[in-house]
Every structure is written in C-alpha cells, then in structure tokens.
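Sample pair:
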Amino acid sequence: MNTVRRVTPQLPDLGRVDPDTASTVSALYRQGVDARKGLFPAEWADELREDIETAYAEALTRPGGAVGRGTNRHYVEMHPEQMRGWLDLVDHPWVRSVCHATLGPDYQFVEVGFDVPNPGAKDQPWHRDFPMPDETIQHGRLTSLAFNVTAVDTEQDMGPFEIAPTTQWDLPDGFEHEMFPAAELYPRFAELAVRKFPRRGDVSVRSALTIHRGTANTSSRARPVLVLGVDAPGAGNAEHHDMAVTREFYDSLPERVRRHLACPIVDRLTPITQKHSIEGLMMGDA
C-alpha cells in the first residue's frame, strides 16, 4: 500500500466546552465524523422527507434545478424556507455548540440541500466534497462542517453512505481535481470504511474532507438525505451556493441564528440553479 502523507491536526482549545460538545469536536478531529441518534423525533424527519420530495419534484422540472452525482443520483440546493424544520436544526443546542467549538463564534450557514440516491444508483468513486483548504494544510484546522440528516430509515440495500475515518488529514497527493484519490489508494479506504445506517431523527456531522462515497442502491426506494453546510469565516464555500431568505423569514429568526446567515435577504425567492457540481461525480460510475 502506498505511503500517505498527512496533515498534523491541531485540536481547538476545548477547556471551556461542555463534555458532549468536546466529544464531538474530538471525534471530528480524530475520526472525521460523529453522530447523535434520535436528535429529533421520527415525525420531524417525515416532514423533512415531504419537503425534500416537493423540492425535488420541482427541481426536476427545469434546467439546472438538480445536478447529477452519478447514475440515478441528484443533488439539489434549496432555500431554508423550503424546509419546515430548518430553524429546529440550525438552532439545536448540539448543532450550535459544535459549530461554535469547531469553527469559531462567527460560523456561517452557507448551504442547505439534499442528495438523493435513487434505485439503480451505483457506487460513487471515493472523494472529498471540495479541495483541502490552505488553512487545513498549513495549520491543521477544520474550516467547514457538513451535517447530514436522513429522511428515511436506511437499510443495507438502499445505497448507504460509506466513509473512511481519519482520511480528513490525508494530503491530496495525486488526487484528481484535489478531490479524487488515485485508484491505488482504494484498498486503504476499503480497509478503513464504515457504512452508516441512520434512522429517522438521527443527525451526523463530518468534515467534508473525510474520504467518502455513496454505495449502490439496489432497492426500490430512494434514500434522500439533507446536507447542512457550515463554514468558518473565510472558508470560501458560500461562493458555490445560492441560498437566500426573504425579509419576512429573516425577521422571524432569533438574533442568535440571524448572525450566522451570510446569504442574501430578498423580497421574493427565486428557484436555484445548481452551482455545486462535482465533475468527477457527473461523468459516470465508479
């Protein structure tokens, strides 16, 4: 197996952080992923599924409404107001405290969208969601987080998410587009790989730098999953997204949430044309 060069992580100071949050931040730096089971009721997740299905059906009716992520897979970004439980999620104490402790007090919500591996989706190539930032390479710090919320109970045949813990620190030597590792590294990821089987109401958080992939969906059911993207100041991922909020919605939010929104405030929402395309996932199957 090839030698892999790695970043030396620099864990944030957790001296004043509560034990539950500290355990998640430590897991993010150590493993690249953590989760909380039953953070929300199953009924909350059922509403999420309804909202995703509505947004997905609309997105498929127009050019650029959904972007391919491989055979029978789509990604769709939506506006916070299209999700009834958006405020519940971003204002949950665990979500807020993990964002603050990992990304600093001025973290920003930059993305809300969803991935849908439909029946017939195939294995994706192992990948990152974006190139490793200079801040991570030079200083060993994580500058973004992705919270994932399943909208269904995940079964073995539904194309479960697969992640290779600890790989958030692998330097992108020989990675195509700095995101797609060479095939000779695949045995390393296969050895590390963990498949996730979340249930409705579970919420996970990961570094998008941790190498991962969606697996083949051989069932007759789609596996929609929400993605909430959060940045530290200057991380730069907001430029890939176009979410917005109306003035009425913005004014209804608590100040502790408003201060973490960097998106435009508009009079009327317009449908999003997807910008966060990942070329290596659009060109075919693994």
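The CA atoms of residues 159 and 217 lie 4 Å apart.
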